[in-house]
Amino acid sequence: MELVKLQIEEEIAIVTIDRVKSMNALNNQVYEEIIAHLEAIRANDAVKVVILTGAGEKAFAAGADIVQMVGQNAMEGRHLAWLCHRAAELLETMRQVTIAAVNGYALGGGCELTLACDIRVAAENARFALPEVGLGIIPGGGGTQRLSRIIGIGRAKELIFTCDQIDAQEAYRMGLANHVVPQAELMDYCRAMGKKIASKASYAVSVAKASINNSENVDLPSGCAREQDLLGLLFATHDKGEGMKAFLERRKPEFTDF
Ligand code: CAA
Known about the structure:
The protein is of the alpha/beta class and 258 residues long. It has 11 helices and 10 strands. α4 packs across α5 and α9 runs antiparallel to α10. The model has no long low-confidence stretch (mean pLDDT 98). The structure holds acetoacetyl-coenzyme A. The site of acetoacetyl-coenzyme A has 22 residues, from α2, α3, β6 and α4.
């Protein structure tokens, strides 16, 4: 049975984790299907934005599947961690912009998937937490690495050590959620944001994403040096000529590069 649905609406792909009875808990199959969909989307020139969400009204994803994990050994745990990281790496580095539409609980591995997305939009009922140390493990799907980069190391340590859940408004105050919207408006809000992003020069957006990601991994002079090279490269693209000519001719640009 398929546990992750893929729906393509013109330039937007919607990936929906669909295991409602288990609060969209993430077992190996769910991770494998997320990875397969993201790999297919990455190769699809027509798709510019990915929205990742959970089915139903209660959960984005309540974490890795505890029913699966309870009997697993170290090597199986290591494989699960690899799956979490592969999905996160794709969300973070794929050329398309990734938006997490957080429609309820985003716990453990579910929270970690949102951390790997470029943008997080929370419904009013969203709740975020990394409860792993209460289960005798750690947030091993990128949680100990990405949370502190988004909200700062002090707040990240407190959330991880206490396992406290935070609601959407608190997530917004911390900079974890970019926006908080009523649940009924969540998907339309994300679609509208996706369409706005897709209307820009998609190759330039993907280069901006790569350059911002690079800034997290290198010192400022190295990041700035790479940024200068990337800007120079973009002067060689069709879209740079088209975007600037369209501005001067007061018309809508027709971007083609991706
Ligand atoms: N794994 C497996 N099943 C889960 C699950 C999970 N992570 N989360 C919820 N479920 C199941 C419940 O067992 C329950 O199943 P049954 O109906 O068969 O009993 C069903 O989903 C509904 O859940 P609840 O009855 O608990 O619903 P609730 O509204 O009372 O509570 C909740 C909701 C707060 C999300 C609670 O279910 C919960 O705390 N879930 C576990 C959260 C968690 O600890 N996640 C971290 C997992 S560790 C991890 O993610 C590590 C990693 O990345 C590698």
